[in-house]
Design brief:
heterodimer; A: 175 residues; alpha+beta; 2 domains; 5-stranded mixed beta sheet; 5 helices; B: alpha+beta; Enolase-like, domain 1; 5-stranded antiparallel beta sheet
């Protein structure tokens, strides 16, 4: 028996500060929508089952694996992806510190790490090394290793600290 | 992935109607962290997913006089970020703060963890020792099932194909109550329990005798195991290291583990011994007004 194809979901959301409207198959993931419908390929597909964090985006201010969010669930939500991270003509302090600490090699995990780290620093601007490692446990890197990534997040904390504290040294040295 | 309808239900009746229409070809969707991965892996096919996050009873987290009601669609972070819930329900908070990573905790729910019924589920043991019961809704109305009789086999529960879990009720703990959950995993975070042990104790007024105890084991049987004999061995006695060690021995006998890629039978029994002792220590510490729970990220490995 042939069935009529299911109607597409009509979704409206805020994406990187702009209102966005799109049509998507009802069973499509947010990750698929970002990459294939909206051409925002900065968000990467790693495992596609919620283990690696490469597809991490922010939804209503909380980080989620976009492979485990359905497109229609995004209706009315606020989404932020890596494309919305840098200010016009510049870099976010985390992006700069990742470059300075060489905290990336192949780069597939990097957008997810940046989005996750940004969410942490917005909540806990002076998270210590242990807290950073715990927060980033849902993001896997298979080449650089985690030490450089953790160092980059600590460096960004210093860069982002208010002037009064800007002169302080890092509290903890990475292992 | 086989195409399916996505239905955002606004009420229990609406959700039940969709489940009834599709029978086994529809399932409720809460956080989606298990079911979407399973669908994508081709474990089964569905024609409809019914999102219950918009069902008021399923999305409420309510702490009242008679206890805590955790809507089946309440994500983990809402539980461990609530200071009152954290203080009163330490065993459940232990589990909510170690399921997956931060991304998963933004979405994953205790209700979903229960209905997914994995033998290794982190939250089911803590719910059992907290004497929780789950309210199910179906075409004939609602019914309430104690969590310790909800799971029937790996991935199987008493939930009918046209029923959904609405909320979990956790009674208000009595005075001098403490609970704890710990699991063993080879990593620090983000892994599936090789063994998990949940314990709850109530101390008497003097604090020197155990008035009652409950112990539940994860990942050492097809469903969570209630270690009733181990718990009974503690009642009336002192909360001592010897008593905890003896309870661990009994619990290891009550476990029925298998050998698999994550561990051997012998290793698992040994872990039951160790984790039973440790969680009892922590539960008693909490019952005596000791350290609070919380998502510190300092898990044991």
């Amino acid at each position: 028996m042939t069935q009529a194809p299911l109607p597409k979901a009509h979704v409206r959301c805020q994406l990187n500060g702009q209102p966005v409207e799109f049509l998507a198959d009802q069973h499509m993931s947010l990750l698929e929508v970002l990459r294939e419908v909206l051409d925002l390929t900065g968000t990467k597909e790693g495992c596609n089952d919620g283990n690696c964090g490469a597809c991490t985006v922010s939804m209503d201010g909380r980080i989620v694996d976009s492979c485990l969010v359905l497109a229609p669930e995004v209706d009315g939500r606020t989404i932020e992806t890596i494309e919305g991270m840098a200010p016009p003509g510049g870099l976010h302090p985390l992006q700069r510190s990742f470059l300075e600490e060489a905290a990336l090699q192949c780069g597939i995990c990097t957008p997810g790490f940046l989005i996750s780290a940004k969410a942490l620093l917005e909540r806990e601007p002076d998270a210590d090394e242990h807290r950073i490692r715990h927060w980033l446990a849902g993001n896997l890197c298979r080449c650089t290793g985690y030490d450089k990534i953790v160092r980059a997040v600590l460096r960004a904390e210093t860069a982002m600290a208010p002037k009064a504290a800007a002169g302080r040294t890092r509290r903890k040295k990475s292992a | 992935m086989h195409p399916f309808r996505y239905v955002a239900a606004g009420s229990i009746d609406e959700a039940v109607a969709v489940l009834r229409e599709h029978g086994a070809r529809a399932r409720p969707l809460a956080g989606g962290t298990d079911i979407l991965a399973q669908l994508r892996a081709g474990r089964f096919e569905l024609d409809a997913l019914v999102d219950v996050k918009g069902v008021p009873e399923a999305s409420a987290l309510r702490l009242g006089r008679d206890g805590l009601d955790i809507g089946a669609a309440v994500p983990c972070y809402r539980i461990y970020e609530d200071p009152d819930v954290s203080a009163a329900y330490p065993g459940i908070v232990d589990a909510a703060s170690l399921i997956g990573g931060i991304q998963i905790q933004s979405r994953a729910t205790i209700g979903g963890n229960l209905c997914n019924a994995a033998p290794s589920a982190d939250s089911i043991g803590p719910l059992i020792v907290h004497a929780a019961a789950v309210t199910l809704a179906g075409p004939a109305g609602t019914r309430t099932v104690p969590v310790d009789s909800f799971c029937t086999a790996p991935g199987r529960t008493v939930l009918g194909e046209d029923e959904l879990a609405v909320s979990i009720h956790v009674p208000r703990p009595p005075a001098r109550f403490g609970a704890a959950y710990e699991r063993f995993i080879p990593r620090n975070e983000m892994d599936i329990a090789v063994v998990g042990v949940a314990c709850a104790v109530v101390l008497d007024r003097s604090g020197e005798r155990i008035e009652s105890a409950r112990i539940a084991l994860a990942s050492v049987g097809p469903t969570p195991i209630v270690a009733a004999k181990a718990a009974a061995s503690l009642v009336g006695g002192p909360p001592s290291a010897d008593a905890f060690r003896a309870a661990g021995e009994v619990a290891a006998d009550e476990a029925s583990p298998i050998d698999d890629m994550r561990g051997t039978i012998g290793h698992r029994r040994d872990l039951v011994r160790v984790l039973t002792r440790r969680t009892l220590e922590r539960a008693v510490q909490r019952a005596s007004g000791g350290t609070a729970s919380g998502n510190t990220g300092r898990g044991t490995r």
